[in-house]
Amino acid sequence: MAIQKRPVPYEHDGNNLEGVLVFDDALAGARPLVLVAHAWAGRTGVEVDAAARLAAMGYAGFALDLYGKGVVGTSTEECQALMTPFMADRAKLHARLKASLKVAGDQPEADAANAAAMGFCFGGLCALDLARIGADVKGVASFHGLFMPPETGKVDKIKSKVIAFHGYDDPMAKPADMTALGDELTAAGADWQIHAYGGVMHAFTNPQANDPGFGTVYDKRAADRAWRALEGFLEECLG
Asked: What residues does 31 pair with on adjacent strands?
């Protein structure tokens, strides 16, 4: 087995972007595709590492890029400035997500007809939004994601299966927000599940997260539990 990583340049709305496709070259043919959406900092090694874990499971992992080639925030202020335009204009976000999904599905190693999406933090919201707008993904997984729904672009019925991994003590998505997400998904007829971890805060999958005052703390036990559940979820969605 040899895991290969290939940069994939693409363009959207005048912006030069660069995703990374990760796959096992010992496997023949197109693999089920799993899109990996990044946190508010931009596409970093965290998302590429997640794509590599997916590749080791037999998928084609694609770490997408929403901000631009090499654009990564290095402070809270920079990350906020990068994310805010997309949060303020969800139609813009949706268009870029669709473009990223299209580029990923065009890769010969990826089976565009058998696709799912996942994401961390801001990327968790991106994964949820792909389901909300009726993108051609069979399942979406949100890791400590933001839950607020878009005002426009939502379909009446969500066809993608949805799973969310959530720290119950996450200050960026309170228990009421979690309940609201469940109500939203129920109203849209979705097949959904939320895994809430007690005593767990935001960014619990990130080993570098260690800021209780900000609400971001790594929790290995919750991270391991979430990934094991993801494995079963992807198998259910993608076969």
From this structure: 110
Give the CA distances from residue 34 to residues 54, 159, 173, 193, in Å, rounded to whole numbers and listed in that order: 8, 17, 25, 19
Phi–psi pair at 237, nearest 5 degrees: -75, -40
Contacts 24+ apart (CB under 8 A), 202-211: 202/121, 202/144, 202/167, 202/170, 202/171, 202/172, 202/173, 203/39, 203/120, 203/121, 203/144, 204/144, 204/167, 205/120, 205/143, 205/144, 206/39, 206/46, 206/120
Computed from CA positions of residues 205, 225, 94, 103, in that sequence, does the dihedral angle turn out positive or negative?
A: positive
List pLDDT tens digits, range 132-157. 999 999 999 999 999 999 998 999 99
pLDDT in tens, 162-214: 999 999 999 999 999 999 999 999 999 999 999 999 999 999 999 999 999 99
CB 51 within 8 A of CB 117: no
Write the CB contacts of 215 (distance below 8 Å, at least 6 apart in sequence): 169, 170, 171, 172, 201, 202
Q: What is the pTM of this model?
A: 0.97
Residue-range domains of the chain with CATH = 3-238 (3.40.50.1820)
